[in-house]
Amino acid sequence: MRKASISFILIVFVTTLYAQNPKSTPTPPTATAEKESISPASLTFKPDSQVITNHITTIKGQKIPFRATTGTMPVWDEEGKAIAGLFYTYYERSDIKDNASRPLVISFNGGPGSASVWMQIGYTGPHLLNIDDEGYPVQPYGIKENPYSILDVADIVFVNPVNTAYSRPISKDVPSTKFFGVNADIKYLADWINGFVNRNNRWASPKYLIGESYGTTRVSGLALQLQNEQWMYLNGVILVSPTDLGIKRGVVSEAALRLPYFAATAWYHKMLSPDLQNKDLTAMLPEVEDFALNELLPALSKGNMLEESKRKEIATKIAHYSGLSEKVVMQNNLDVSLDYFWKELLRDKGYTVGRLDSRYIGIDRKIAGDNPDFNAELSSWLHSFTPSINMYIRNNLNYKTDFKYNMFGAVHPWDETGNKTAENLRQAMAQNPYLKVMVQSGYYDGACDYFNAKYDLWQMDPSGKLKDRMSWKGYRSGHMMYLRKEDLQTSNEDIREFIKQSLPNAGVPAKY
């Protein structure tokens, strides 16, 4: 276990530029000499580096001055030896004199090999990438102020696990098993968070974890790991588009639980009959949810024991709610896969449906087939995010490196064994009466769908004793609900309110 004193001794200030510059976009230094060519093989990774820039942004009409610290900080092994360096960006409001009561939000994305780029310049951070109001790419690429950022109420650190963004192992000799697995990931990141909190003197601050997609698996496990191994207690965990969190599903439950997502997608593309299409989305979905739980689930459980007349009745209802034909539903034994749905729903129109956000459509080589050629939404997102994050880090945050920014890094094989992260989170909540959980889901997310997110909450707390500290929020977009401007505003406001509501009054004890 590393020592706090070592943490401070190891700090290397690679460069600190524009420390007094209040502009939101620092002017890059003027080149004075032609730079020598550097091959990737000759790059030297620095696991401990730091660049500080000062900025001002406007959030909810208020001018907010803040400091951005960008750099790397080591991951240490049990002997205190650095084995990797994690790239991070730490935004802290600079007009706060005492941060003892100032919340700290620690943010992770998913993958598991994804950088923190998505939520950093798409969601909660003080700057946004340049996209249209529905989240589609536009040119010129660029960065603008985020008027909905939560930086007014909390400081934020965006963390990139090993091999994402500019995070790297110290050498190829470090075993990948130190990083690439459900529990290895949780263990080393908890150690890193402890070091970060030490370095930045944030032990007194109320602390929150936010994770998106696989990041929800990560932060659910971290809640207990931080509590039991680092003795660090949280006020809140925010799960954005959560995975199954290690809660096992069977073939029957998987088939039944995905139907409400089918209905939401079909409603968006106007593929439902008028009695459903003419209702608002959130007025229509409860009917589908009720059918999925109380009729479809028992019917599927019967398998070939289901009477033929009942089978046809169920198929008719699935078709009615999904926008698919009854023939297709019967051909798939009442169990239409996600891949087939994405290919089939708009087949006659010549389009496929996006996996992570079914508002996006794609064009395949052939109309025939069982699954789309590509993920239309991910291609769109990489189109806009990749140039923007590279420009932002170099030009706005003034962090210069010749390393490649990995939007997605090599983290496989990933060890999935021992995933009980939902139970980890339940235990953390049971042991810590302060701890609250909020889930945020997009109705059009087919990878981590909204109804399965509700199911997570139901199964995570079977006794019902914790449900008053759990909440769920839905948005009319997909996996990254914040890319739609209307949802960006609403979802950030939901986080803002969640933080405020989970801060206990001074002197109120954590007890049942």
Structure report:
The structure is a single chain. By secondary structure, the chain is an alpha/beta fold. It has 2 domains: 4-25 and 44-247 and 407-501, Rossmann fold, CATH 3.40.50; 251-377, no CATH class. The chain is 34% helix and 16% strand. The protein has 15 helices and 14 strands. The longest helix is centred in the middle third of the chain and has 21 residues, at 281-301. The radius of gyration is 24 Å and the shape is globular. The chain starts with a helix and ends in an 11-residue tail after the last helix.
Question: What is the strand and helix layout of this fold?
Answer:
Elements: H1 4-9, E1 49-59, E2 62-76, E3 82-93, E4 104-108, H2 117-122, E5 127-129, E6 143-145, E7 155-159, E8 168-169, H3 182-199, E9 207-212, H4 214-229, E10 236-240, H5 251-257, H6 259-268, H7 274-277, H8 281-301, H9 308-322, H10 326-331, H11 338-344, E11 352-353, E12 361-362, H12 376-396, H13 421-431, E13 436-442, H14 450-460, E14 470-475, H15 485-501
Parallel strand pairs: 4-7, 4-9, 9-10, 10-13, 13-14
Antiparallel strand pairs: 1-2, 2-3, 3-7, 3-8, 5-6, 11-12
